Amino acid sequence: MVAAYHSTFCAYGFWLPNDPRVSWSDYVRCWDLFYAAGGGTACGARRSVAAVTHDPESRRRAKETLANPPVRFSMEQIAAIGRGFGIASDESEYRILACAIMRDHVHTVILRHTKAIEQVVGHLRSRGTKQLNAESLRTDPTVWAQNSWNVFLNTTQDIARAIQYVNNNPIKAGMPPQKWDFITPWGNSPV
């Protein structure tokens, strides 16, 4: 039984459709992007391939074909998005065990909820965007990529490992550790 999810979702332009490392789709909507990136196909990978090496030059060329520039959040925008996530968490009583809002993607560990994880992610993204708007910090026409990558966590060990990974993400990227008011402490969260 699924106890929690490690959900990763991206800002617009971070993980490109038909990325040669792995794609969520075998449908090619933008052939310019496909060719500029060197092709790409759907993949049945069950583990993250984010660290797989890729050609930075072809990735740069692919990003140039996007309809809008890739989104990179400032620290001020990251804080606003976090406030939006807190509103969403309060509205639906999500039990979020870890959250890292990076400059171009987000990692969360969320205990199972009555809503499907895709709905939870959509709610978080919506509230994050609304908060950017409310604080006059939205600078991009499209903030988020469409899909999310959701890993099912079934054991206490899986959840603990995911929490550690998420909490270490900002530090590995040279950012300060993140502390959010909406985080549910792990010791208070029955699986």
Q: Please, how many domains?
A: 2
> What shape does the CA trace take?
globular
Termini separation comes to: 10 Å
The number of E-state strands comes to 4
Helicity level: 25-40%
Main sheet strand line-up: 2-3-1-4
The percent range for strand residues is 15-25%
- Which parts are unreliable, with pLDDT below 50 for 5 consecutive residues or more? 21-25, 31-37
Using the CA coordinates, give the radius of gyration. Answer: 17 Å
Q: What is the makeup of the main sheet?
A: 4 strands, antiparallel
Q: What is the CATH superfamily classification of the largest domain? A: Transposase IS200-like
CATH class division of the largest domain: Alpha Beta
Describe this structure in words.
This protein is an alpha+beta fold and 191 residues long. It folds into 2 domains: 126 residues, Alpha-Beta Plaits (2-Layer Sandwich); 49 residues, no CATH class. Helices cover 36% and strands 16% of the residues. It is built from 5 helices and 4 strands; from the N terminus they run E-H-H-H-E-E-H-E-H. It has a 4-stranded antiparallel β-sheet, sandwiched between helices. Strand 2 and strand 3 form a beta hairpin. It is globular and about 45 Å long. The N and C termini lie close together (10 Å). About 6% of the residues have low confidence.
